Amino acid sequence: MTEQNDYRAALRQFIATDRFFGLDQVPISQETLAAIPPAGNRLRPRPAADSACRQKALDVLDRDQVRECRRCGLHETRTNTVFGVGSSEARLVFVGEGPGYDEDQQGIPFVGRAGQLLTRMIVAMGLKRADVYICNIVKCRPPQNRDPASDEIVSCSPYLFEQLRIIDPEVIIALGAPAAKTLLNTTQGIGRLRGKFHDFHLRQADGTTTIIPLMPTYHPAYLLRSPGEKGKAWEDLQQVMARLGLPLPQRR
């Protein structure tokens, strides 16, 4: 069976078990689709040397800066720093708020229950975790899984911005309010922010600014607590798929 057939089979299974993300109830509207600027189904071919340079830059940032970081108090209670995982050439980057217990133990983002749901979300989009990049606004676990404090975000977010500069994604998905508020520099709640694209302004090393479309949506941990909101999250993901030129699943 081809990879495409694998994706379709997985999606059918999700629908049959828990009507994954309300897919059979919440198809994206034609009006919403018409409002999304199409990006086409283009890939951004990069020379092998360029890809290797991006990966090396990420590795150096992780090894020489993040793992040795003592900028805030979170380093005192961490087991491991949690840098990021995925493709250095990713067209799509997911940004969460911070590591939880499982992530702190393994040093890998989104590997617990919320991470398992995020993996399902990615597969439903016709992608694999290896196709995207996944990271957080802070690289160490806040105690008791609380939201990162403002001083912790200020100390750690430069690492995130450097990751985004290196990868240069076409679209960013902000998972949850802390990520969306940090990236968009806003105090609005996720309920008001989600459902539409926003401009994320990424300052480059040469002083110029790159604008990247950003879609805020609910964090997978919230969706586990509030499964009735999965349909809204699925609508958000479908808008991202349309923006990237990915085929949308047909309603069954």
Shape descriptor? globular
**Structural class by sheet pairing and helices:** alpha/beta
Low-confidence stretches: 13-18, 22-43
Q: Give the N-to-C terminal Cα separation.
A: 21 Å
Count the E strands. 6
> With helices defined by DSSP (H or I, 4 residues minimum), what is the helix count?
10
Average of the residue pLDDT scores: 87
The profile of the biggest β sheet is: 6 strands, mixed
H/E element sequence: HHHEEHHEHEHHEEHH
Helix share bin? 40-55%
Rg, nearest Å = 18 Å
Strand content: 5-15%
- Major sheet: arrangement of strands: 1-3-2-4-6-5
In a nutshell, what does this entry contain?
By secondary structure, this protein is an alpha/beta fold.
Note the main attributes of this structure:
single chain; 252 residues; 6-stranded mixed beta sheet; alpha/beta; globular
Give a written overview of the molecule.
- There is one protein chain.
- Strand 5 and strand 6 (209-217) form a beta hairpin.
- This protein has helices at residues 3-18, 30-35, 48-66, 101-106, 113-124, 150-167, 177-184, 190-193, 220-225, 230-244, and strands at residues 84-86, 92-96, 133-136, 171-175, 198-203, 209-217.
- The protein is α/β, with parallel strands linked by helices.
- A six-stranded mixed β-sheet has the order 1-3-2-4-6-5.
